[in-house]
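Bumping my old thread because nobody answered last time. Still need a sequence for this structure:
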């Protein structure tokens, strides 16, 4: 009996010790978050300060004259919106040694003419303007022929290229709701006409890869997509990023006599092997790096591996890649960075600066 009582006492002691330890652990878990603040930190309030220690080398003027190949300053859409006096734009260009700015979104007809009259004619050699496709006519049976005529008229007025925005492949639809495919044969006369005229097609399709994935805890741009839900292209309404790029690449291959400038690192900066293979397959394609520094990470240009990949990509091509960087929409300063210029004061977006001067042949 005494032995039983002794064993029972030991068992009760062990049980009490376990309960005590569990209670202390629970207390730590309960008290822990409160020790970090009275209220939980919301994602929108999280504004961390970088701990990176690195020298800053701002360069305010290019050593050689450069051509800005990706710009929207005072374009056809700027009427009634943000507008910069042309003389102010030229002043910034001179200060940063920008020889020429390409205004990509010039539209067509009278709106194109207004841009040409304001920006091109008073400043010979300093600006050129690209025209665009009028997708509102996509249901017309003679759509391609109409657009060929529209492009011919634009070039006769003074346009020097064609710009294709990212709504092509994502939002351009027939009245029935069916999406217009990038490689639709109906459009072939348009690309062929650009080749015949000798004008480049500056094309932007898709967006960063994260925008095509679920907006959840695994998405690296979750915070950005919460702030801009319309930037998400995930779901059955949209094709996959890969499907869009494959269709675009088929267009590149079908029109070897047309020069395509594939914007934003061929719209897949997260996959430089793909970009390299694209350039190998399609000698009529060039790429530019505008506004995609973040995707060239992780670590951006501080990553030696990625820097070597980008350098190799530009060095091994038989034709120039356009090494650029883009400014934000509300400029505050002028800075040269990554071998290119951020001439931010030249309007709503001074865009991307070209180190290679191959575009000179399109200015004349």
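Sorry it took so long. Here it is:
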């Amino acid at each position: 009996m005494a032995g039983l009582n002794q064993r029972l006492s030991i068992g009760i002691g062990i049980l009490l010790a376990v309960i005590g330890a569990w209670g202390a652990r629970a207390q730590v878990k309960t008290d822990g978050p409160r020790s970090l603040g009275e209220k939980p930190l919301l994602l929108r309030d999280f504004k961390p300060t970088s701990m990176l220690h690195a020298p800053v080398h701002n360069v305010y003027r290019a050593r050689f004259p450069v051509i800005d190949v990706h710009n929207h300053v005072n374009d056809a859409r700027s009427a009634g919106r943000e507008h910069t006096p042309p003389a102010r734009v030229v002043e910034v260009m001179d200060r940063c040694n920008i020889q020429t700015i390409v205004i990509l979104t010039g539209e067509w007809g009278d709106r194109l003419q207004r841009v040409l009259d304001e920006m091109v004619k008073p400043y010979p050699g300093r600006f050129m303007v690209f025209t665009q496709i009028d997708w509102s006519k996509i249901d017309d049976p003679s759509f391609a022929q109409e657009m060929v005529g529209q492009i011919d008229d634009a070039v006769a007025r003074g346009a020097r290229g064609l710009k294709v925005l990212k709504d092509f492949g994502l939002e351009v639809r027939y009245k029935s709701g069916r999406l217009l495919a990038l490689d639709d044969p109906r459009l072939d006369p348009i690309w062929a006409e650009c080749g015949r005229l000798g004008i480049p097609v500056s094309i932007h399709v898709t967006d960063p890869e994260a925008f095509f994935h679920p907006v959840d805890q695994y998405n690296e741009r979750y915070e950005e997509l919460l702030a801009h839900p319309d930037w998400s292209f995930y779901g059955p309404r949209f094709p996959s990023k890969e499907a869009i790029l494959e269709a675009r690449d088929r267009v590149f291959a079908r029109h070897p006599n047309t020069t395509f400038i594939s914007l934003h690192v061929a719209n897949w900066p997260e996959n430089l092997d793909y970009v390299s293979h694209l350039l190998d397959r399609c000698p009529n394609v060039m790429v530019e790096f505008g506004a995609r520094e973040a995707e060239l990470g992780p670590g951006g240009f501080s990553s030696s591996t990625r820097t070597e990949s980008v350098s190799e990509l530009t060095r091994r091509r038989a034709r120039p890649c356009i090494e650029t960087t883009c400014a934000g929409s509300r400029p505050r300063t002028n800075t040269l960075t990554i071998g290119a210029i951020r001439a931010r004061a030249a309007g709503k977006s001074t865009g991307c600066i070209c180190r290679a001067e191959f575009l000179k042949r399109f200015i004349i």
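The chain has one domain: 66-363. Let me know if any region looks off to you.
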